[in-house]
Amino acid sequence: MEEYQDIIKELLESASADIGDIIRIEKKNREFEGILMPRTEREAPNHIVLKLDSGYNIGIEVTRDLKIDKIREGKELEMERRGVKVEQDEEKSDISIIGTGGTVASRIDYRTGAVHPAFSASEIYNSAPEIADIANISTINLCNVLSENMSPEIWTKIGNAVVEELNEGADGVVIAHGTDTMGYTASALSFMLKNLSKPVVLVGSQRSSDRPSSDVSLNLEGAVTTASSDLGEVSVVMHGSTEDDFCLIHRGTKVRKCHTSRRDAFQSINDMPLGLVREKKVKFFQDKRDRGESESVELKDGFEEKVALVKITPNIQPEIIRNLVKDDYKGIVLEGTGLGHAPESLFSEIEEAIEDDIPIAMTSQCIWGRTNMRVYSTGRDLSNLGVFSVEDMLPETALVKMMWILDKTRNMEKVKTEMRRNIAGEISARSRHDTFPKTELPEDG
Amino acid sequence: MEEYQDIIKELLESASADIGDIIRIEKKNREFEGILMPRTEREAPNHIVLKLDSGYNIGIEVTRDLKIDKIREGKELEMERRGVKVEQDEEKSDISIIGTGGTVASRIDYRTGAVHPAFSASEIYNSAPEIADIANISTINLCNVLSENMSPEIWTKIGNAVVEELNEGADGVVIAHGTDTMGYTASALSFMLKNLSKPVVLVGSQRSSDRPSSDVSLNLEGAVTTASSDLGEVSVVMHGSTEDDFCLIHRGTKVRKCHTSRRDAFQSINDMPLGLVREKKVKFFQDKRDRGESESVELKDGFEEKVALVKITPNIQPEIIRNLVKDDYKGIVLEGTGLGHAPESLFSEIEEAIEDDIPIAMTSQCIWGRTNMRVYSTGRDLSNLGVFSVEDMLPETALVKMMWILDKTRNMEKVKTEMRRNIAGEISARSRHDTFPKTELPEDG
Hints:
- 2 copies of one chain form a homodimer.
- The first copy, chain A, is an alpha/beta fold.
- Helices cover 27% and strands 23% of the residues of chain A.
- In chain A, helix 4 packs across helix 5, helix 5 packs parallel to helix 10 and helix 7 packs parallel to helix 8 (347-355).
- The longest helix of chain A is centred in the middle third of the chain and has 16 residues, at 152-167.
């Protein structure tokens, strides 16, 4: 690694080439010409990434015999591309891109190997200038947070920025966000944004380490297209396959990152995605809230921080629940087994927690399917103790929702009623089409 | 409900019909004849279940106009069927069915509505006597535990029963088990059974509430077929689709219940299933350990009970980790975000735990994909604190494995080495085929 960095450093320095410059690379009788792109962390360290005229990024393996020439400075180019942005087209939607951090907004310096997560919203825009064909783009650099470090405070900050943009006339908002907790933030926005009637789209990047070509471009194109569409709710837009062919539009409360590294890691759970974007065209296949000319959007913010998500396992020790009561937790979401179960050995601690006015909601670690606590004796016993099912709500969504509700009320009955009321599509209709995903078997499976 | 029970009670009493009796039901000019089957909890309360001559169960909705006649006592029948069992066929494998409880072993009394989870292994056998065509069956009633109440003590009890059966000459063992924690028990057995060279198959039942016909029959047929096959390891055999057409054979350390109620809820994660069973024929499509003529099986039992599985969420409070240290936990498995991340706000507590000799393994709540802590700064920071990745191991499997290892050693380095060593197929080869399941989209997705 060290070694490659040295070679790259030397090559770039001798050509005085900087990120954004147009360069020509000669390697074994082949020539490549394009914009020198920032390298992101996950890409192979021995590659230089060029954005070609076609819009695609390619990675070129660096060897000693490689030759680099600078053709043009990046500054001018930057100016040119920014020009597109300034030239407002009245036919197009006005879309605001809010940068919050994450892979979509991180890059690595070729010369030092240091990480620059401070890849701004305008730089994101510059990495996919094609989106200017879809909409008039404004960019806002809100913060720079890796999504594992997101918090209710930042959810609120994002919510405020969305409200400001929409109420000042934006037709839609795109939020560039790290993928790790994008589903949690999408849920938080789904609950907070009152009177929402325009698209609020979260987008991120899952670029695979073996491909220097980035998925930012297609995801951003899909997100901006969705933000310009007829949708009136919070969604997540990410690759729908491992090919660069289409993006899926997922409802903010039903989406989950289901793979650590694949581009199509995001899946709608227990419900169809809202739709897809292919070649800058949106196609919906779900009931959705449509864009409307509503009153101004409001932010109902506020999250109770003392809410725990507890995954039930065989032999889970009762002190796990007891400590939450002792530490003054205000609510608990259980990720139960099967239809919504927990071992008998926890019953007395669960009873004590509920007697202490701590609401306990039941979800399932199966991820797919609906909890039902009337089927087996364990479920009925837990119901009798006061644990309540939240139907087919995702555990992650239930956590965020309970944090949000407990800020508004501590009345046990009200918390239960609100948790079981469908506010933002978090509970699917029982009549829905079952969307359990299947593994493709080698043959005649 | 009450009402239906009263009608059923009346009808059965006036015909003096008992479970196991052959009865005839007349309803609206149609006649049904078969064995009166026990009703299981999840089946519609207004149905009587008959096993027809074809071997299939049907549910008949009870109405006042329905007529029941008893044709023959169940006792004789029971004798007859048990007769099959006694007639040993030397050509066939000798398979032991161990009953441990769960849906596969629960029934409800038609007359009182009371639950009888004490459906024994021999009764399970009687509910699918067809399996006598496949193998010579012996049944053992080991315990009667709903799987949410399973514990290391019962895992060990099951392990001992398996060892006894195999070492006394059984060609394979089938374990009837509740589905909720079947994956955890399968992992526990995978680690405990040393020198295993015969099939040990866990099987359960997920009967859907809308179908009085049970999935026990096909699952048991698949399990007994697998137990008679060329396999030499621990597996879970359950429906491969929602049709009664085939079962999948999953490796014990790679399987997970992924739906609360579907028959095909069990999925192999990050790896192909080992194979499938269709029409009493096994087809393998995976590298597997084959049946062998090994020395006798041994049980390496022992589980440290103070190991916690902690799911990371945005805003998770540091006291969650601090309390585990205070309560003298011996190990922690984190279900991190994405590639294996946790918020910075936990770093000092994680550091303290590791300084306190508590090993911390990293898995991912994505479920699918491999953790990799070298990609992002958060992962590298956690690695530097001493948190170690366990590759693509399931969080549930990692918990069971760490409980098992911490009983054998408390040496931090050894725990790490063993956790990262592939003992029972729990870590997939990097070259494996990616088996991420896909949701079927309405059209041109």
